[in-house]
Amino acid sequence: MASHQFTVASPPTDAISALKFSPDPNSTRIVVSSWDKSVYLYDLRDENGAVGEGKLLQKFEHRAPVLDVCFGENENEIYTVGLDWDVRKIDLNTTVQTVLSSHEQAACNVIYSREHNLIISASWDSTLHVHLGGDVDSLPIVVPLPSKPFSISATATKLVVAMASRSLHIYDLKALALLTAQSDSTDPGGNRVEVEPWQRRESSLKFMTRAVACMPDDNGYASSSIEGRVAVEWFDPSPESQARKYAFKCHRQTGEDGVDVVYPVNALAFHPVFGTFASGGGDGVVALWDGISKRRIRQYQRYQTSVSAVAFSGSGQYLAIAVSPGFEDGHDDVPEGSVKIYVRELGETEAKGKGAK
Fold first, then answer.
1. Model confidence, pTM
2. For residues 310 and 319, is the Cβ–Cβ distance under 8 A?
3. Where are the alpha helices (DSSP H) in 141-274?
């Protein structure tokens, strides 16, 4: 099967901050957060069950721009964070929005850990809020961070927090779940807990981290920077595993004078089946990479403006790409029709690694 691409109907009107597929491998639902103060729920299937431009199912307005969104235990609940500082749960069946907690500055990231039933948010107030799922009345534990977080990602056992000052913390999710379950939930400010990370690391990249994404096999993660580079690292602290880590240049375009123009790598996402990963850059390019064999598998056509988010579906059959004008373009206004969501239906081996059987 050859791949083909289509555009999702009724996109947001301002830059897209995040997009995520439903955790159900058979689902074609996508949830999208935007700077237009809204969250959008789409289904790529139309009324006849055909996959194409799909339809907008629901739109949820917020008080301020929404910086991240994720599905929860199933595809009928989502969690959002943004510039209103709140961590929200939205029940898609009833459309009820519940504020789980509020940070002291903008909340920039939110993830749900299925294995441990945790909702984890990160904020520019240099904290994590860790909630137990299923109980909207319980208050979180508040985990102080040494600096402002930029991106978080999780595996079945670990949470990776990429921060300012090129600092990374890796937390054991089982330990976080235990602390949250034991927390005194009567303090309205949340229970502030000093948590020792499983590992502390310094980024392999010289410049500010833009995104981090964990490998689906629980072995490591990739991170990207504002300076057109991606690093691939493994959790195993042994010298042999640490010797495998590496970084490479990407998302660069040769200018008219022959000098490379370097773009930020805004987004990373791992394929759930093959373990390869996609990167999206300020140059409007999406590339697929085999992190094990250190090779680029393919690079797609250049989009009209910056790629702000990428995501694979639970089955790995679809790759969603959010295209939004960014600061790279040198202007703040977003021209009408410039924000788009593209979806590629991938061929059977399109995202397969070079050495995969």
1. 0.94
2. yes
3. 173-182, 239-242
